[in-house]
Design goal:
Blueprint: H1 3-14, H2 18-39, H3 43-60, H4 70-90, H5 118-125, H6 131-140, H7 145-152, H8 156-176
Length: 182
């Protein structure tokens, strides 16, 4: 969708055109649902979060400043909605860690082109709650520890700690499965 098409669609949405609102939803719902499902296992909960996300999109659409593509802005709303719903469940898992114990980490896993990545995805989904979400935000969605800390109302150290521990768990499982070697 071109920037001009986005502007027209947004203007129509802001003028309460139900057809435009449906078109915006149809254009982005599939991709946004995939993002929600990355963080939320339960299908009903994921559907509820997607619906809440689009309610927020339409509520705050007038604040969209066209500085980034519309899809990026909607993705940010979706991720905010996911974590607003998750915060209460695990906000205090790892809070008081020594910052020197958890250095900045990179995901240094090299895979063969023919490798089945479904096992790796399965293992990522099995990471402990609180670690999985931060791991995905950092490595997949490429948010900084500061952004993650702001999202989740945790410290940057807690974000680094969760990423560090999640990477350790995942690396150990992949080594044991013979998929990865240091």
């Amino acid at each position: 969708m071109s920037r001009q098409d986005e502007k027209i669609l947004i203007e129509d949405c802001l003028n309460n055109s139900r057809a435009a609102q449906k078109a915006l939803y149809d254009a982005y719902a599939g991709a946004m649902y995939s993002i929600v499902r990355r963080y939320v296992v339960n299908v009903d909960e994921a559907n509820d979060i997607l619906q809440d996300s689009f309610i927020s999109v339409f509520k705050y659409l007038a604040t969209y400043k066209f500085e980034a593509p519309l899809g990026s802005w909607i993705k940010r709303v979706v991720i905010n909605t996911v974590f607003r719903n998750k915060k209460k469940k695990w906000n205090s898992l790892i809070e008081h860690e020594d910052p020197l114990q958890f250095p900045e980490v990179k995901l240094d896993l090299s895979f063969d082109d023919g490798m089945d990545l479904s096992y790796i995805n399965k293992k990522i989904k099995e990471l402990p709650s609180g670690m999985k979400e931060v791991f995905l935000l950092f490595f997949i969605d490429e948010y900084s520890h500061k952004e993650i800390a702001d999202f989740l109302s945790i410290s940057e150290v807690a974000s680094r700690a969760r990423v560090f521990k999640a990477r350790e768990i995942l690396q150990k499982q992949l080594i044991e499965a013979g998929i990865y070697s240091k």
